[in-house]
Amino acid sequence: MVPYGVYDVGTNTGWVSVGVTADTAAFAVNSIRVWRQRMGLQRHPDMRELTITADCGGSNGARVRLWKVELQRLADETGLVLHVHHYPPGTSKWNRIEHRMFCHITQNWRGRPLSSRMAVVELIGATTTNAGLKVECALDDGLYEKGVKITNAEMDSLAIEGNAFHPEWNYTIKPRNLD
Predict the structure, then answer these.
(1) Enclosing domain of residue 161
(2) One Pfam family from the UniProt entry (predicted)?
(3) What tens digit of pLDDT does each residue of 99-138 get?
(4) How many CA atoms lie within 13 A of 56 on its CB side?
């Protein structure tokens, strides 16, 4: 089982998808997609842009081509402009999702048997704090293929623009269907 989370700083709410295959970029972006459908649009109905902070490694790493291709698909599907900011290598411990959400999830399930996928989903989804954090969770039973290769042509087709400050870690992806 693989968890992937979205933490909404403005509303102190979280979303976790629990995957059954592998932690791939397609799974990570689908988790963002499902967060938008199930939580994001309700809390931010006029959302036109989304800022994503991510670690520099793993499925959502700054050098992961599939991550960028999947984000482009999300931008194209939703019309959202996606601003992506990666934490520099070795600094992911400062990622708010770790300190404001996942630490409470692990405290919530401490000492409880994780005997099934649904037990994991229910324990994550029952996470709340006195400060108002509320986490929702669902099982993602999609099959996500590992080792997907992205061609240079696919990368060249992205509507991606690097920011002035460390463009390898900070970039914007715009929907290709917008003028």
Answers:
(1) 2-173
(2) DDE_Tnp_ISAZ013
(3) 788 889 888 888 777 888 999 999 999 999 999 999 999 9
(4) 13
